């Protein structure tokens, strides 16, 4: 037969029969050339229609054990413990990525066999990340990830899927584990909890499509003052979110995870869209407005895809000795203070901020109300500044809008 592309089963059978006739053909002869061409055509057809399936990963492990004369205890360094080895070999526990990597490196079992996918390779390893340190139990409880049982053994798989959903490793580079998130991070903070929180913020932002795109350089002093003016309204926080989203800025409320010590953050999505996120762990109006303006200043002045993509803030560190001296944070603080209470006003009413000022009790409260009225701002803004400047948080506790923020966002994010 004349060699031609094999398209049908009949073509395939004819080619096999002709190959049998040519098996004794000499290399380089016309018959030998025909044999070589037919063999290649048959191989192409078989690869498409009769692919050789990969061996089962557990069968491959057991075969390698038999080859090397290994017992179950010899697999402990690769799988974890005697009980885990037994469960894996009896198919009661799935192989995890970390187990597969160890078996591949230690026993030489190909990655495509362990992953049970032709030509598959292990995902990029991040040696700076210890997958088991993510607070997956709390993430499951919060509904951020879904996992029934055994999530401790699946931490890498769970977190890789979580990160991919957030925009991939470029959304918040793993280098952030080494370089940090900015300077206003509590030394006691669990950075894995911080990272998980940031990724969840990005996931929520991606799920909330905005009608308008953000215009770079649109956040100026006038913009910030327009945001701050909303504090006069009872539903000011909700109006602030609406205003930001109409200007292409994502606004997310997300409670922090344990040991995160976090008030707010500003970050950029992979496409450059800015995100403002807040935890509302201090459910007060004065805190809300300061954190919001502070983070907006970060977006306007300090974030860029090429350099700083994320800044997180624990405002409890503000002006404390433990805080790292950082010009970025100082600039955001100063501008937020100026927007909310201009320096000229602070100078004119310096007695309010003077810790030695005899004004207190009812007199102090009346002074706060009077200044708030003349400035046309919410009294909580003035009261919060007085408490901060005097470092006395027992003062004016009834005027800072305690419990008036979180309730506005319940079920609305």
Description:
By secondary structure, the protein is mainly α. 49% of the residues lie in helices and 4% in strands. The protein has 20 helices and 4 strands. It has helices at 9-21, 30-49, 57-68, 76-79, 82-89, 97-107, 111-114, 136-142, 155-166, 176-179, 191-207, 221-229, 236-246, 285-301, 327-340, 343-348, 350-353, 361-375, 379-390, 406-409, and strands at 250-253, 264-268, 274-278, 310-313. It has a 4-stranded mixed β-sheet with strand order 1-3-2-4, with helices on both faces. The mean pLDDT is 87.
Record keyword descriptors for this entry.
four-stranded mixed beta sheet; mainly alpha
User: Helical content, roughly?
Assistant: 40-55%
The tally of beta strands, per DSSP, is: 4
How much of the sequence is in beta strands? under 5%
How far apart are the first and last residues' alpha carbons, in Å?
71 Å
The average pLDDT is: 87
What would you call the structural class? Answer: mainly alpha
Quick overview of this protein structure:
The protein is mainly α. It is 49% helix and 4% strand. The protein contains 20 helices and 4 strands.
Topology:
Blueprint: H1 9-21, H2 30-49, H3 57-68, H4 76-79, H5 82-89, H6 97-107, H7 111-114, H8 136-142, H9 155-166, H10 176-179, H11 191-207, H12 221-229, H13 236-246, E1 250-253, E2 264-268, E3 274-278, H14 285-301, E4 310-313, H15 327-340, H16 343-348, H17 350-353, H18 361-375, H19 379-390, H20 406-409
Parallel strand pairs: 1-3
Antiparallel strand pairs: 2-3, 2-4
